[in-house]
Each structure stands twice: as structure tokens, then as C-alpha cells.
Amino acid sequence: MPERSANQRDFYRVDCHVMISHCAVGDHVPAARQPDSYFPDSEHFNLLRELRRMDHDASHLLHALGEKDRNLGAYLAHLNRKIDALARHLAALTPEMSRGSEQVVSLSEGGVSFHAAQPPAPGSVLAIRMTLLPAWVGIAVYGSVVAAGAGERNVAVNFEQLQDADRQIIARHVMQVQMAEQRRARERG
User: Fold this and answer.
1) Residue 120: what pLDDT?
2) Contact, 92 vs 81, CB < 8 A?
3) In sequence order, which residues have a C-beta less than 8 Å from that of residue 33 and are 6 or more positions away?
4) What domain count does the chain have?
5) Is 44 inside a domain boundary?
6) Is residue 164 assigned to a domain?
7) Closest listed residue to residue 129, CA positions, set 17, 11, 19
8) How much is the pLDDT for 3?
9) Structural domain for 179, as ranges
């Protein structure tokens, strides 16, 4: 794979497990079409994604309620975990989630490097659907192929028009993976 450009190093990268599928959409990002619309089987994926967005939108409310009334905050957090468990179970049972390829990718807020059996041409734009594991958090994004070739991670993509909520989900996931790696390193050392 060619050498990476400097802008791909603006963000911390981690190797992590995801379910990923992609679809070539041309040489530019479509103006009025969402990336998840390229995947016709995305009802359950969209449900998981919407539940995560709701979590994100209401997190400050949960925190504020928890400060005022610890019992109420704890109960609402417990209900939230129950809903998350149900959603993850639903996702695990859903055939559409297994249509993607589970693999270890290199992920950052700026892009992703992954393996594709038939790498798309550099410069092409992809609709990408990723489910970040083990949390089963789903995002759908557009990305421009910056490099493609042979090897384990033969496609490098820069995200395009990434929504702030998706960027925050990726940043949180990267941080969680990094913290888990540090914890494992301390336990070994």
C-alpha cells in the first residue's frame, strides 16, 4: 500500500473488530442520499444506530437526573443497559448483520483501513456500514478510497462528510479500545 498522507495521521488509530460492508457509489459523495440507503437490508442496523443516537442525545439528561436523585439515575441507567442488551441480542440474531465481513480494521476519526476481496479503485467513493464490536454500535458513512492494493488491510479510506454524532461514536470507541489495550498491558506487565 502506498505511503499514507499526513492528514491520515491527525487522529489516533486503533486496531479493532468490526462488521463491515461497503458499496461503491461513484467518484463523488451523493448530495441527497444517506450512506445507509445503499444497504437495502438495514432495518435492524438503523434501529441499533437510532438507539445509540438516543443514548448520546440523552446522556446529559441522565447525568443531571443522577446528580439530583441517585436512585432515579441508577434505575434509568439500569433500564438503559437492559435496552442495550436487548438490542445487541436482536443484532446478533439478525441475518443482515452477518452479511458484512467481521474483521480487524485500523480505525480513526479520519478513516478506516480494511480488507476487501476486490479492492475499489483509489479516488472512488464508498458507502460504508460498520458495526463496532463488541458494543454493536452501528454507523454508516461515506469514504474516499485513498489507497488500494494487496495485503491484509488493502483498502484505506478517508471519511467524507462525517456527521458529528458518528465522529463522537468513533472517538469514544477508539478511546475504549485504547484503554482496554492499556489495561491488558498492565495486567501482563
Assistant:
1) 92
2) no
3) none
4) 1
5) yes
6) yes
7) 19
8) 45
9) 9-188
Instruction: Give the max Cα distance, the chain.
Output: 56
Q: What is the CATH number of the domain that holds 22?
A: 2.40.10.220
d(CA 173, CA 179): 10
Distance between CA atoms of residues 147 and 169, nearest Å: 25
Q: Please report, for residues 15, 98, 101, 116, 182, the alpha-carbon distance to residue 20 in angstroms, rounded to integers and kept in the order given.
A: 14, 9, 5, 10, 25
Buried b (16+ CB within 10 A) or exposed e, 108-135: bbbbbbbebeebbeeebbbbbbbbbeee
Phi and psi at 8, nearest 5°, equal: -80, -10
Predicted structure pTM score: 0.77
Distances (CA, A) of 80 to 35, 73, 93, 145: 27, 10, 20, 37
User: Does residue 3 sit within a domain?
Assistant: no
pLDDT in tens, the chain (189 residues): 444 444 445 678 899 999 899 999 999 999 889 898 888 766 777 777 788 778 878 888 888 988 999 999 899 888 988 887 887 777 667 665 555 678 999 999 999 999 998 899 999 999 999 988 888 788 899 999 999 988 777 899 999 999 888 898 899 999 999 999 999 899 987
